[in-house]
C-alpha cells in the first residue's frame, strides 16, 4: 500500500482551507493556492538561508536585507504555523508570527479581508518577475548631536524641497513619476496584532 508523502501539517490544514474558502468566498482559486503553498513549502529543501539573508548591525544603523524568493518560502511556512511558538515571556522583542491565532477570528469581516489579500499575494508570487530583487528593512537612529536647532534653520541658505502632505487618497492613484513617502503608525512591537483580530494601519497596508 502506498503512503502519502504529504506532510501531516498540510493534511491537517487541507480541511481548514476548504472551510476557509466558504467563509471568505475564495473557493474559485483556493485549490490552486493550496498547490502553490505546497510547492513553495518544498522549496525550503533547496534554499540556503545564509545566502538569502544578510544583516548589518551597529549602534546607529540596523539593516536587514533579504532575497525576495526567501519571502516566498517563509510565508507558506508561517501560514501553516511550522515555526516554534513564541510568547512575550520567551521572546519579549519578537512576537509569534505563526498563523495559529489568525484562523480563530475568521468570523470577522476584517479578518476575512486579510486572508483574501494574503491568498491573492501568493498568486502574485507565481510571477517570475515578483521574485527579483531584495527587500531591505532598516532602522536609522539620529543622535542628539545631529538635531537641528531653530538657529540652524534660520541661518541655513539651503532651499527646501517641495512638499505636499495628503491625509486622504490612494497610493495607486499617485503619478508614478512623483516621489512618495507613505507613513504608517506602528507600535513598539512591529506588526503587533496584525495576525489576530486587531485592525490597525500595519494590518491594512
Automatic annotation (TrEMBL):
GO terms for molecular function: poly(ADP-ribose) glycohydrolase activity. It holds the Pfam family PARG_cat_N. InterPro entries: PARG_helical, Poly_GlycHdrlase. Residues 73-128 form the PARG helical domain. One of its GO terms (biological process) is regulation of DNA repair. GO terms for cellular component: cytoplasm; nucleus. It comes from the Eukaryota. This is PARG protein. It comes from Fopius arisanus.
